[in-house]
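Entry: EKC/KEOPS complex subunit BUD32
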Amino acid sequence: MIKPEERFFTDSGSYFGAAENPNTEAFLNVWDWDQLHMVKLKGTAKVFPPDEGHEVQILAQFADYLSPEVCAVTIDDNGLITGVSTDPDEDETSFIPHFPFATIPPLANFPTIQCSKLQEPDRLGPGVDLSLYEDKSGNPQMVAFKFNSWWKPLRMQMAWDELHLLGSLPSHPNLLRLDRIILEDVESRVIGFTTKYIPGGTLENPKVPFRFEWLKQLTQVVDFLNLELGIMHQDITPRNLLVDPATYKLVLFDFNFAARGKYNLMDGRDDASSVVFSLYELITSDTHFTSIPPWDRNIDMVQSISEWPCNRELDSDVLVFRSFLNEWVVKRRSDRDMERYLNAPNQLTWPDLPNPPEYDAPFELGKTLDGEPNWVTGVRTRRAAMELGQYCFRWERPPQSRLLKKGENAM
């Protein structure tokens, strides 16, 4: 189930006057990762003071009781609902131009499956479901289904890059590779992908023991990604590390922020440093360094700590872990590390994200100063796309709490 603190996100909004004035009319668009639905909350600055997140707290109280058709909710100054609207003109959901599978040649040889053939046992987190499908032999396959249902230019780019990266990865025991490409049923547009589901949760859970061999596997897979493939993961943390109970091997996943050579390479997010901070967190359960921006962190912050308090079950002494880590870091730092990364012998490549063809079709966005229709191209709302007859995959779904209750009543 999606964690309550991760469920809602304030996407956009506006104050029709000074936000400091409690009587100023305002609206805020809040995205619900559980129902994959945008809700416009309308009220005043008194109930929606800027930058305080009250809109999320208010929506959380009644979101499960709203119909998927509701686009806007009016809230009074006491935080109570005074009206709801299903008027499509209130819908601020952005259009997501998912690409037809046939227009992505590099993925042509990968197996696909229609979205309608997936069953949903659980929702693991924002943009990730636990899913089930039957393979060609009728055998059930439990997978993690990752999808892009919320539009932002950066998210589109990240989804495109991660899909192609996973499709390009060679087989490796410590990496999750692409399983299936998921297509919507009407126009066979790519809406996501699946990977093998590994039960047991991530190493973010301090109750999960940590073995010395897993540290060695982590450094080996990082060396493989960086120095063989020219890929920088850039988000190595305990929450992105699993242990496969079938092989008892460490598995690194989630390539949302990955860099390819200089492309998308971010300051302070090199994988060697991330391994250092991850091991410190794994051993000590101290997470306060995660709140420091990567560009303001330095591995000396933790390596200079004389003793790491052990707050997790380990199979070796803390000094064994630290000694191995220090030797690995010294080797990486002294061996032309960045030069080797940029000149990796088996660098992965894939095409750039193309401009969605739908964006070339002009649509009306307000009026000019002369009162004439203002025609533009590019990013648009879902309602504008639908008015143009462009296909829109609808992501809305019932809240998981309702599905769980229905399941309980059926038993």
